[in-house]
Amino acid sequence: MTGIFASGSEARLGSLGIEPLLSNPPLPNIIAEWAAILPLACHLASSRDDYLTTGDIALLGRLSIGLFPRLGTLSGLARLLDRGTKYLDHASTKGGSSRIVWDVKWGSVFPCANGAACTAISRCLKNLDTTPPQRMPETKSPQLRKTDSEKPSLKKSSTIKSRVTFRDADLKERHAKKDDIRRYQLLHVYQLYQKPKKHSLKQSIDELCASTPGKIIWFILLICLTVFLCLLGNYGSATLIVCTSVSELVALNVIIRRPAGYLRNNEAHDACMLVASHENATEWHLYIGQRAIVDTLLNKPMFVVPDGKTAQFASRWFWFANILQFAAMTFVAAQKGWDGIWMVVLLGIHWGLRWSPFGGTLAHDWIEREGVGAEVKSFEFGGRFAMMGAIQLFSGSTATAWMANILVPHPRREAWLTRLRGEEPTEQLNEHDSKWLEYISEASFASAEVLTTEFDVSNTKYQASV
Asked: Which residues, in sequence order, are bridge partners of residue 288?
């Protein structure tokens, strides 16, 4: 037990057991043991690393190494430059955070093209809305009821015996017992638009740091730090610094380009796209507004992988740098001396630079740099049918194929869609399904009325028929 806390004389020596030019103070064995394994225990690339790497590149528009990348990140960059679009097809839906996109306007369904970037941006935008989710009504407002009563009555289907109008009190009484077993749906709505770009002081600092002179200055500082670590005999940490500093220079020569359709609209209407992790999710994200922004986030690639000799050289170097980083980290773990302490210090500096409260997030920086504005609000629905119906009415679209995998085709679903179009259904429905149809249709129209009131979308028009 005493040996665990003792300060061995070996700690004063360098990593190679040679007396360094600058002597090290004594180091308790327990601290040396702890520092030796910490980087290997908590700074390894996971299965999500490729997914996160593509998100960082999409938001930054360039390769970024950092002071102390996770062990395995450099090999991920090598695979990116080596495989190109094949890597992106795999990485964008990898890591357990893949998302499905339903284009309400067109009726198409596809995986999100920029999963990590979209997740980071939506998380950043949700912070703009500090109000709790608004509970959606399930009965229409008196104004909307009055509008319905002034319309000529539609021809009733002979298959539906009666139309049941649920009052607020009836609804509360009917569904009070079901509230505890309801599967509520949370919908976050993001109305995106282009705003004038503002060049802030932070953006100027970021541009300076990412420029060639800034990278050269950073490289010189890292080399000075390497010399200092060598004078202390901490050769493992010094090797790590050399590895990352050279990788930064190599990454500087790899030019990441934006595609031609980046933040450009190729359609004559605004977007309305629904996003979730899967068809049976309880949390949904609805992106509306300028299609140039929404389509870039969800459907188009945000960057082009370079090719040519420069990319091939960078790919080979990143493979070698990953092996060199592995050798340095395992060497330090085996030595259990001051080299491990300095590696923990480098890890702390890396985390501090990446998560500095003054630096913001990559998503926030992208929003400011590209001049993207957003109005964000959240709503809670009593069920999926009411939410999907509200989205369908709010979008003004006639396409319904997008919801086929979310809501299973059924005669009462078809009757509900017919009712949303302002027509009388002709499907054979029993009394239970008829009452369900009345209730869900009214909830859909009432929720759509709230969405239209909250968001000023000029091309969103619907007519109530319930």
From this structure: 191, 272
Q: Is the four-CA dihedral 350, 351, 354, 360 of positive or negative sign?
A: negative
Tokens linked to 171: 């609804």
Phi-psi region of 369 (alpha: psi -120 to 50; beta: other; left: phi over 0): alpha
Which string of b and e fits 202-211 if b means at least 16 CB within 10 Å?
eeeebeeeee
Q: Give the whole-angstrom CA distance, residue 220 versus residue 217.
A: 5
Read off the pLDDT of residues 376-404 as tens digits, 9 standing for 90 and up. 999 999 999 999 999 999 999 999 999 99
Q: Is 129 left (phi over 0), alpha (psi -120 to 50) or beta?
A: beta
Q: Is 333 helix (H, G, I), strand (E, B) or coil?
A: helix
Smallest CA-to-CA distance from 70 within 335, 350, 334, 353 is with 350
Instruction: Please name the residue ranges forming H helices in 396-430.
Output: 411-420
CA-based nearest residue to 94, from 112, 75, 120, 81: 112
Give the model confidence (pLDDT) of 396-442 as tens digits. 999 999 999 999 888 889 999 999 998 888 777 888 888 888 999 99
- The rounded distance, in Å, linking the Cα atoms of 457 and 81 is 42
**pTM for the structure as a whole:** 0.81
CA distance linking residue 199 with residue 358, whole number of Å: 16
